[in-house]
From TrEMBL:
It comes from Tessaracoccus aquimaris. It comes from the Bacteria. Keywords: Membrane, Transmembrane, Transmembrane helix. Residues 261-287, 411-468 are annotated as: Disordered. Residues 266-277 have a biased composition (Basic and acidic residues). Residues 5-236 form the PPM-type phosphatase domain. The keyword Cell division does not apply. Residues 419-431 have a biased composition (Pro residues). The chain crosses the membrane at residues 305-327. InterPro entries: PPM-type-like_dom_sf (IPR036457), PPM-type_phosphatase-like_dom (IPR001932). Residues 449-459 have a biased composition (Polar residues). This is PPM-type phosphatase domain-containing protein.
Length: 468
């Protein structure tokens, strides 16, 4: 088992007017958070993330537990940012990096999102242990530019992933073993963006941690100091109970910004609080240049059109595929129905979707629907499904015979002299039409699909001329 000796330093730098960096160091954790969004409260975002980490700082027993805990810290910080933005939309646009590691005495559990960096100095060799989530790093990964070109690229400040209150964020996690003599450094890009890895390696050789941190910050200031500078250092040493008992140390915005309680900002906007717990951002503040305001433009939460467009395309594809399936199926279906009072044959499916018809009329007969008995009128109005165009024509021919007989019965009823009612005649049959209930069931002819008629006339109804 080992212990951790630690130090933390954070300052505004030579250009900025306020510190949007924060840091935290303890026997169990080293962390840097770099706020962004310019006037949209980057200092509040970094303070939220570092403070949440400090509140959740407890020694874990194994590597898996460390990763679970640090992932929980990030999730809770992100939720807090989301709540604050919901309460005050002027904060929409703030975000923060999160770069650090938990320590359990034998291992480090690393968590990283954004472009703050982690370095390991082991046996005199410096290694960057994090991978920047930045635009220029993606260009390096694709082989489009070199690291030297990235250092002077005009868009080197653009970040692709941060904590900004949105539900989808993808940090990097890693476990690695601690070795006696290891020195870890986590820093904001106000340091790594201004001095080279060679300078970092040289200055990290300084024995005293506080002095090493001060020398690193001085080197960044000497090279312009145009951004906030935060450095958190930790040395792996022999186990020491006094070191393990030291309290954690917060630096930067986490010591300067009052984090509103949930509900405070909403109350201030329309409630009883006389003063805002967090000052309204000045959108014209001169210390926030265009580069800072656009620092993570690729993830601007106000521009969610790519996600919305993707959802629209996905819905359109589903509807298109579904619509094509319905169309293809409908082209193989036929039914007999009514068109302007006449019996007609249709190709497709009855009805429509969203005002679009799923069928087209193939041919219309001269059979007037009102010439049919009431039972068959209802069947035609409800549509009679059949399996093919030939079956549909057979059904129409059968209906023609039924209509002709029905007209004859009606004419007989109009004669002045009474006539004997005709004897019941077996109901004609055809594709899609019901069988005569008194007839012996017969097997349907080949290639004729059964109908979906749900009611059948009684023998008395079929025989009654009044049914016509």
């Amino acid at each position: 088992m080992f212990s951790l000796r630690f130090a933390a330093h954070s300052e505004v730098g030579r250009v900025r007017k306020n510190n949007q960096d924060a840091g935290y160091a303890s026997p169990n954790m080293l962390l840097v958070t770099d706020g962004m969004g310019g006037a949209a409260a980057g200092d509040l975002a970094s303070a939220v993330a570092s403070t949440e980490a400090s509140r959740s700082d407890r020694r874990a027993t194994d590597g898996e537990e460390m990763l679970e805990r640090i992932a929980g810290m990030m999730a809770r910080a992100n939720t807090k940012l989301s709540d604050l933005i919901d309460e005050d939309l002027q904060l929409d646009g703030m975000g923060t990096t999160f770069c650090g590691a938990m320590f359990n005495g034998t291992e480090f559990g690393l968590a990283h999102i954004g472009d703050s960096r982690g370095y390991l100095l082991r046996d005199g060799e410096l290694t960057q242990i994090t991978h920047d989530h930045s635009w220029v790093q993606s260009l390096i990964d694709e082989g489009k530019i070199t690291p030297a070109q990235a250092a002077v690229h005009p868009h080197r400040s653009l970040i692709l992933k941060v904590l900004n209150g949105q539900s989808m964020f993808e940090p990097d996690y890693e476990l690695f073993a601690a070795e006696l003599g290891d020195r870890l450094m986590f820093c904001s890009d106000g340091l790594s963006g201004l001095i080279s890895d060679e300078q970092i390696a040289e200055l990290l050789q300084t024995d005293d941690l506080d002095e090493a941190a001060a020398q690193l910050a001085k080197a960044a200031n000497d090279n312009g100091g145009h951004d906030n500078i935060t450095v958190v250092l930790g040395d792996v040493v022999e186990q020491d109970g006094d070191l393990d008992a030291l309290p954690g140390l917060l630096v930067g915005s986490a010591t300067e910004v009052e984090i509103p309680r949930t509900g405070q900002l909403a109350k201030e906007r329309g409630g009883s609080d006389r003063e805002a717990p967090y000052p309204k951002p000045d959108l014209n503040a001169p210390e926030h240049d265009a580069g800072e305001v656009a620092r993570y433009a690729p993830q601007d939460p106000k521009r969610r059109w790519p996600g919305i467009l993707a959802a629209i395309v996905a819905i359109a594809l589903v509807l298109g595929i579904g619509g094509w399936g319905v169309y293809a199926y409908g082209k193989s279906r036929y039914f007999v129905g009514a068109d302007e009072g006449y019996v007609a044959v249709y190709n497709g499916l009855p009805g429509g979707i969203l005002g679009l018809h799923l069928n087209e009329m193939v041919e219309r007969s001269s059979i007037n629907v009102t010439d049919l008995p009431s039972f068959f009128q209802r069947q035609v109005d409800a549509t009679i499904p059949v399996g093919s165009i030939d079956a549909a024509r057979g059904t129409v021919a059968t209906l023609a015979g039924i209509a002709e007989r029905c007209v004859e019965v009606r004419n007989e009823n109009k004669r002045p002299s009474p006539v004997e009612s005709p004897s019941p005649v077996p109901t004609p049959t055809g594709p899609g039409l019901p069988l005569d209930p008194s007839a012996t069931p017969m097997s349907p002819p080949p290639n004729v699909f059964p109908s979906t008629i749900t009611e059948s006339p009684t023998a008395t109804e079929e025989a009654d001329p009044e049914a016509c």
